[in-house]
Specification:
Radius of gyration: 26 Å
Distance between the termini: 36 Å
Largest sheet: none
Helix content: 40-55%
Shape: flat
């Protein structure tokens, strides 16, 4: 059984009142809205609407809009460290410059982070995660309010990287704002650390805030009378919604309400109420909630099926390392057929054939296992587990082609590009050329290949990115590259070359090649 791993988010999203009414997960935007039930634990960012401008350049006239009065500029004490500079990965690890944000404006960078949406390209997901965790100087206009830090934390939560978010919150230390600590409360709940959550709540809350959290923490500490008194007082003063009263009364004295149905959960579902419903024996399925909630299914308290489905979901989002799947898929014999059971069965059969070194069995089992992994879009994680070993087997037919593609999806893509398993047809030649960064005398084989090729033959960096690079706004240039490539995935193939060209211009050659290979092999289109 794997140990704790990386995962996500904080508050809410809408879920159905019963498993029978399960729907697809809702948009991440809903999870990051202010919780009407518990505003003290909102994941929403600062609401003052202030957008600080970069300081005026010495010797230049100030910029004006609508009149002769210059816009307000931010003021920061020289030499004072900004909380926006907090990170987990130093430059020697990321390879990024210390002035990653250059002359960029905090509010604009934060907006770009919040709007970023990457789907199905593991190399870009990994690069984005690295950017969010990078230790770098704060933008020049940073006022120390943590606007950029909050945006980074929220995006980590949104994509399910709870442990990274928690580490970033911890790194912020005592200087962090109540907004940061409130996120820490929810992260602790989602990670199953109620004691830490309550310690944080006690340090963060004031007398007028978060009554439900106070009731929960008092009860958890064993002070049931104080918890009941707090609830009754809030009820008498009309400071808590009727729905919440019903839920908390059941939480405090479930036996008195035996035989009655639990009320539907408040909307949106917060980590606090998710834990409360779990405590009263009415767990809310995580499949309809944001990925952050899936982390809870990885504990030993959940069944094997729930663990598998949660792990697949988080691996696909880039919030969980693929090697966790090896331990989970092989933990026990599948209990049935269909869905996740078929994936576990196919994985186990291939793993057993690999352990025996039985090439004939691998020839038969690899295509089935690969098809099942493709069903849930975790081919790259699958490649990281098997590609190197597959390259040493004398495979044939479809299995040989799949093994070659897995090699190109793996971290060893450069070495495995020359594997004889790939053959020498036009598509294999193009993939080999991409892996080696040389497409001269290689013919593109389809529309995606034709969109990719210019970036490796005659790269043209979009003017917008050129300006960003000149202003040392490397982080924003990376975001632009990701956005352009993602637009290609969504059908605007003409933008792919520009995105890949930016990555190459920034020295991210390996990321550019791996992204191009994923575009070709994973076929994430539209």
């Amino acid at each position: 059984m794997p140990t704790k791993v990386t995962h996500w988010l904080i508050l809410f999203a809408v879920c159905t009142a019963s498993a029978a009414q399960a729907e697809e997960p809702l948009s991440a935007i809903n999870w990051l809205s202010t919780s009407q039930q518990d505003p003290a634990f909102s994941v929403a960012g600062p609401t003052n609407g202030t957008v600080a401008n970069q300081p005026a350049v010495i010797g230049e006239a100030p910029t004006v809009k609508g009149g002769a009065v210059p816009e307000a500029v931010s003021v920061t004490v020289l030499g004072q460290a900004s909380i926006d500079a907090v990170g987990l990965l130093p430059g020697r690890v990321t390879g990024f410059p210390n002035d990653l944000w250059g002359l960029g404006k905090s509010a604009e960078i934060a907006t770009k982070i919040r709007q970023m949406s990457l789907d199905g390209l593991p190399s870009l997901q990994s690069l984005f995660m690295t950017t969010l965790l990078a230790e770098a100087a704060a933008p020049v206009d940073s006022t120390g309010d943590g606007l950029l830090l909050l945006a980074r934390i929220d995006k980590l939560l949104e994509i399910g990287a709870l442990e990274q978010a928690q580490a970033l919150i911890s790194a912020a230390g005592p200087a962090s704002s109540s907004e940061v600590r409130r996120r820490g409360f929810d992260v602790s709940l989602l990670l199953g650390d109620e004691e830490d959550a309550c310690v944080m709540a006690k340090a963060t809350l004031n007398n007028a805030a978060a009554l439900a959290a106070r009731v929960f923490c008092l009860a958890r500490s064993g002070d049931w009378p104080a918890a009941a008194l707090t609830l009754q007082t809030a009820k008498a003063l009309g400071r808590i919604a009727p729905t919440e009263i019903s839920i908390l009364e059941r939480f405090l004295d479930g036996e008195a309400l035996d035989g009655t149905l639990a009320p539907p959960p408040p909307l949106p579902v917060t980590p606090l109420y998710w834990r409360i419903y779990e405590a009263i024996g009415e767990p809310i399925p995580t499949s309809t909630l944001p990925p952050a909630f899936a982390h809870a299914e990885l504990s030993d308290r959940s069944g094997w099926k729930a663990q598998l489905e949660a792990a697949e979901r988080l691996v696909r989002a880039g919030a969980l390392p693929g090697n966790v799947l090896l331990g989970l898929y092989t933990e026990r014999e599948p209990a049935a057929s269909g869905g996740v059971w078929d994936r576990a069965d196919a994985f186990q059969r291939l793993d057993q054939a690999m352990i025996k070194g039985d090439a004939a069995a691998v020839d038969q089992r690899l295509p089935v296992a690969f098809a099942r992994m493709r069903d849930v879009e975790i081919e790259s994680a699958f490649a990281s587990l098997f590609a190197d070993r597959l390259s040493h087997l004398p495979l044939s037919g479809d299995a040989a082609q799949i093994a070659y593609q897995l090699g190109l999806l793996s971290p060893h893509f450069g070495t495995l590009a020359n594997s004889p398993l790939g053959g020498n047809d036009p598509r294999a030649q193009f993939l080999r050329g991409l892996a080696l960064g040389n497409l001269k005398d290689v013919t593109p084989t389809d529309s995606m290949a034709r969109a990719i090729a210019p970036a490796f033959i005659d790269p043209v960096v979009p003017e917008e990115a050129v300006q960003m690079i000149e202003e040392h706004r490397v982080g924003e240039a990376i975001f632009l590259a990701m956005t352009l490539v993602q637009a290609g995935v969504n059908g605007e193939l003409v933008k792919v070359s520009g995105g890949l060209s930016i990555l190459r211009r920034l020295g991210l050659e390996t990321v550019a090649r791996r992204t191009a290979l994923e575009l070709m092999i994973l076929e994430r289109r539209g």
